[in-house]
Amino acid sequence: QWLSDRKKRALQKKDVDIRRRIELIQDFEMPTISTKIKVSRDGQYIMAVGTYKPRVRCFDTYQLSQKFERCLDSEVVTFEILSDDYSKIVFLQCGRFVEFHSQHGHYYKTRIPKFGRDFSYHYPSCDLYFVGASSEVYRLNLEQGRFLNSLQTEASESNVCDINPVHFLFAMGTAEGKVECWDPRTRNRVGLLDCALSSVTADTEIEGLPSISALKFDGALNMAVGTSTGQVLLYDLRSSNPLIVKDHHYGLPIKSIQFQHQLDLIISADSRIIKMWNKDTGKIFTSMEPEHDINDVCLYPNSGMLRIIMTANEAPKMNIYYIPVLGPAPKWCSFLDNLTEELEENPESTVYDDYKFVTRKDLENLGLSHLIGSSLLRAYMHGFFMDIRLYHKAKMMANPFAYEEYRREKIRQKIEETRAQRVQLKKLPKVNKELALKLIEEEGEEQQFSKKRKQKNLPSLLKDDRFKVMFENPDFQVDEQSEEFRLLNPLVSKMSEKRKRKLKILEELEAQGQEEEEEPEGKASDAESSESSDDEKGWVEEVRKQRKLLRQEEKLKRQERLKEDQQTLLKPQFFEIKEGEEFRSFKDSAKKQKLMKKTLEDRLKLEEKLGTLNVSDTTVGSKQATFKLKKSEQQRKQQEAEKRHRQERKTLRRSASHLKSRRGRGRLFH
Description:
Residues 464-490 form the NUC153 domain. This protein is of the alpha+beta class. β29 and β30 form a beta hairpin.
C-alpha cells in the first residue's frame, strides 16, 4: 500500500499476481462511495448510485464498460428498475423526493409527506408502496398518476419492505422489531410477527430492542428477516416461530439478504462481512470480508445462476466476486472459467519479493536499530519490512564472509546427502553429541523394558525428521556454559536418575514375578515419596551452588571491566557553546537539566524565592502572577554599553555648558 503508482506499474511487468488481476468492467467505480447497486431483469445492465456529487451510473455488460451517467439533485436512499432494461427507473431521495427516469433521462418528480426509507413496486396494480418515518404506508399509483389511500399501521416507524413475487403479499419491517404483512387486494393486515423476541437466544447478547433492518421473500412460503443487532431469522409464513436464527456476532445491522437456490444458501451481509450459509443447518459455506465497509450486496441473476456477487462500498471501487463452486460464469464473462482453471493449475507466487521481513533482534544484529521510525522501515505485526537491497548491503557489512560460509555449508550438505546413500555405520552426529548419546542410551533401556513387557516401541527422536535439523545445524548446538543450561541441568539429571531407578525397580519386580497388591504398593509409594523428597533437597542444593558460581563469575567479569576502564586513557572532548552564553561550569548545565525535570509548581516556587516571580491574590479570588524575564549575557552587555554611552554624553554636556559660562564671564570682565 505504500508503493507509488510508478512502482506499481513497474511491478506489473514482473509480478505474476498483478498480471493475473482482471478489470472485469472498465471504470466500475464511483467518485467517492457507492450506496446501492442493482441489475436489470434482462441481465444486460448494472446500475449503481453513489456520491459525491449524487449520481447514477449505468454499465453495459455486453460492452464491459459504462453506458451513461446522470447527476441528481440529492442523495439516493434506494431505487428500483421497473422495466426489463434501464428505460424505467424510480429513485427515492433523501429530501422526500421521488424521481422518475425514462430512457432519455429525467421524466417526473414528486414528493411524499414524510421521509422515506424504502419502497416496493406491486406489478399487478402498478402501485408503489413507500415506508419511512411515519406510521402510514403511502401508495402511489403509476397508471392513474395519483396518491391512493394510505395503509394505517401500528408501527411508529418502518425501515424496510418487500412484496412476495408469487402471491404479492406486502411485508414491512418496523422499528419495534415486528413484521406486518398486508394483503394489497383488501388493504387489510393479515399477519404480525414479533421478530425481536425470537431473535434473542441463549447465545446472543443484545443491548437494546432489535429493529428490522433487512427483509427478503424466497418463493411463496419462506421469508428472511435481518435485525439491527446482527441476527438473521428464517421464517415459514405458516408459523410464528423462526426455522433458524443465524448470528453474525458483530452486533452490526444486517444490510442485505439474498438467496441461492441450487446449493440452498442464504447470503447475508452487514457493513463488515458477507456470510454464505446453509438455510437448513446454518453451517457456514464461506465468508468474505472486504477492506472497506459494505453498503449493499447484489447477485447477478442469469437463468437462476447466482455466481457473480457485486458490492457497494464506502470506497470508490465497487467489488466483484466470482465463486466458481456455485456454477459457470454468465455468458458475458465466460472467459472467467478458463482463467480460474489456469490459476488452479499454477502455484501461487511469493508475496513481498522486493522486501524483507525483519524483527527487532535482526535489526540489532545488523546494527540498524536506529532506523526504527524512519521511512526505510515499515512496521508490520511483530517486526518491520525493509528493502531487500538495503538488507543485503547491511548483511554484507555486518558479516562480509557470510556468503562464503553459506556456500561451504551447502557444499557440505550436498556431500553428506551423497554419503547417506552408502552403507553407514552407527556413529554420533557432529552436532549435540552428548544429547544424541543420552537419547541412544535411554532408547536402548526403553527397548529392553518394552520387550519384556511386550509393548510397542516408541519412535526414535534421532530418526524423526521434525528434529533432524537439531543434530545437523550448528545453530542448534546446546551451550553447556550458558546460565539457563547450568540452572536446568541439575533438575534434568535428577529426573533421569529417578527414571532409571524406577525402571530398575520395575525390572526387579517382573523378574520376581510379584503381582501388584495393595500393601506392597503402599510401601513402595512411601519409599518413593521419601526418595523424591531427598531428590528435591539435592536438586535445590545443586541449583544454589550453580547460582553462587554464576554470581562469582559475574563479579569477576565486572572487576575485569573496571580494570580495563582504568587502563584506558580518556581523550579530551570539545563542546560547542551557543552564541550569547558564557560557560561557567558543568554544574550549571546539570542544574538546568534537574530544573527542567521538576514540575511547574516546583519551578514556580523556586522562581518566587529568587525574586523573578511575584504571585498575588485579586479581589475576585483568582491569582495574578508577574514574571521577570531573565536577560541573556548578550543583552546584559548591550545594556551596560548603552549605560556607559549615556554617562559619557552627560559628562560632555556638562563640560560644554561650563565652558560657555566661563566665556560669558570673561567678556563682561573685559
